[in-house]
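Bit of a strange request maybe. I'm writing a small parser for structure token strings and I need a real example to test against, not something I typed by hand. Could someone generate the tokens for this chain?
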Amino acid sequence: MNAIIYNSLLRMVRSVQFYIAILLLIISSIITYQNNYIYFQLGNRIYVGALNIFIFSNVFDSLSLQILAPFIAVLPLCDILYDDYKSGHLKNLLTRTSRKNYYSSQIAISALVGGLIFVVIFVIELLLFSIFNSEASMLILSPNGLY
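Reply from user aminoacidic:
Good idea to test on real output. This should exercise your parser:
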């Protein structure tokens, strides 16, 4: 089962859908930050900080992320079962393992990848924001708000 999960992860990283999902997530962050930049007048603030940029680009009032999140989570492995069947790889796998083991590993990898793609991109964005904007993050909204 571990070998099936490892091979599925390798196939996911090599697939075009994985990079499309990353691109959609980055575009969603840019759109959300532009909307929040205008609405909260972040250009008038002296110190915005990396943490506030991350929050205003991914967390706070992110309608595009709310709409795209299910598609982004499913996109990297959307065709893995069909691809296994079409290429004949499924017949090869089923001679060495049971159907239950194969399908349970595919369910596990789908759940893992659905969350993993968001974690990877959010960590990369937070690191990039911290590198390019090393200012202290001040409290922008009222204390009774999101923070």
